[in-house]
Automatic annotation (TrEMBL):
PANTHER family: EG:EG0003.4 PROTEIN-RELATED, FI06409P-RELATED. One of its GO terms (molecular function) is UDP-glycosyltransferase activity. Pfam families: UDPGT. The lineage of its organism: Eukaryota, Fungi, Fungi incertae sedis, Mucoromycota, Glomeromycotina. The chain crosses the membrane at residues 326-348. Gene3D superfamilies: Glycogen Phosphorylase B. Signal peptide: none annotated. This is UDP-Glycosyltransferase/glycogen phosphorylase. Keywords: Glycosyltransferase, Membrane, Transferase, Transmembrane, Transmembrane helix. InterPro entries: UDP-glycosyltransferase, UDP_glucos_trans.
Length: 374
């Protein structure tokens, strides 16, 4: 929200949380049903549960906006697999023959209209014609490519592209994304801004052009743009000139590549923390064994008042007022007002006294001079 207007900030801080809470009610109810099946207490008090539950975040600073968190919040990301599927012979051959390839994929959730896809294809062809890139790998995933064939007045060879007859555009239904991004000839990644795509792109130091569609995509796109390794475009206002212009910037401006390499180092170092995440889970299980109590039936039960007490920061245990020193600040403010008022009152009286003294002195002095003259 750093660079957003008032309405966007109001929506982010007030409207969106209310909407999220409303949407979460059903999820919480279903979660409580599942918790009850395994003998775990329901989600009885959101604030109370948050104060003594360990939360593991698949992220890292650099990708994430920095903030001060309690020990109960642990960043263990990016969580990446130790192995990934390799390139098919066809993809490997295509990448080796195209040293400036762009990879285009928008995941399994985001969907683009045929008109939007047509605009992107026009952009690709223009980039290829001007020798800015020399190849495109397009992972269609859930896209219904047959809808593209129904477009009227199209000035691009859609059928040729969809049938993989274009020499510089290769279409595949399912692509080994990590392997494509790790190839030296992949220079740019056009994607929807999903967390997985962003993390894999960072790990392989590939600048991105992002088309956010829903959910966390918008926040991820903002983070990547602030990190200096991506630019974003709106799926509702796609323009060939805008797409071409931004892709040219990403390819020609060395700062995007340098920022991607900077984040790549952090990503590779932090990706080892997934093992710490597993260790933390074992620590919690061990604590539960020692901090738990037996219920009336002899079953095992967590004491929510004492669970993870060693991890809870003092300000949380003290409560909102004491934890934020509001009572201390209030008393300090009262004392300040009392002393300031006393000082002001005393100063006023001293000033008034000396003013009267000075005024009376002048009057008496003038009377004295007058009597001397007479």
């Amino acid at each position: 929200m750093e660079n957003e207007n008032f309405y966007s900030r109001f929506k982010c801080k007030i409207l969106s949380p209310l909407q999220s809470i409303w949407m979460a009610l059903t999820t919480v109810r279903d979660l409580n049903i599942q918790r009850a099946k395994v003998g775990v207490e329901p989600h009885w008090d959101p604030k109370g549960r948050i104060s003594n539950i360990l939360m593991l975040f698949d992220t890292f600073f650099g990708y994430e906006v920095p903030s001060a968190e309690s020990p109960l919040y642990q960043e263990i990301g990016p969580i990446l697999s130790d192995t990934y599927p390799g390139l098919t012979p066809t993809l490997n051959s295509f990448l080796n023959e195209h040293p400036r390839t762009m990879y285009f994929a928008i995941g399994t959730i985001a969907l683009l209209s045929p008109q939007s896809t047509s605009i992107l294809l026009k952009s690709f062809l223009e980039l290829i014609d001007h020798d800015i890139i020399d190849g495109v790998i397009w992972a269609t995933t859930r896209m219904n490519t047959t809808e593209l064939l129904s477009l009227n007045n199209s000035d691009i060879p859609i059928s040729q592209i969809l049938n993989n007859n274009h020499p510089h555009i290769h279409i595949t239904k399912h692509a080994p994304q990590f392997a494509i991004l790790s190839h030296k000839n992949t220079k740019i990644f056009l994607n929807h801004g999903g967390a997985g795509s962003c993390q894999e792109s960072i790990y392989n130091a590939k600048p991105m052009l992002i088309i956010p569609a829903c959910c966390d995509h918008f926040g991820n796109a903002e983070r990547m743009e602030l990190a200096g390794m991506a630019l974003k475009i709106s799926k509702d206002d796609l323009n060939v000139n805008d797409i071409v212009s931004k892709l040219k910037r990403l390819l020609n401006d060395e700062s995007f590549k340098l920022n991607a390499e900077r984040l790549q180092f952090s990503s590779k170092i932090n990706s080892k923390r997934k093992y710490r995440g597993a260790d933390l889970i074992e620590i919690i299980l061990n604590n539960a064994m020692y901090e738990g109590v037996k219920d009336e039936n002899g079953g095992f039960k967590i004491d929510n008042e004492n669970f993870l007490k060693d991890w809870i920061t003092p300000d949380i245990k003290m409560g909102y007022i004491k934890g934020n020193y509001l009572d201390v600040y209030f008393v300090a403010m009262i004392l300040f007002l009392v002393f300031f008022g006393a000082f002001t009152y005393t100063s006023f009286n001293f000033t008034k006294y000396f003013y009267i003294l000075y005024t009376n002195g002048n009057i008496n002095f003038k009377k004295y001079l007058k009597s001397k003259k007479e």
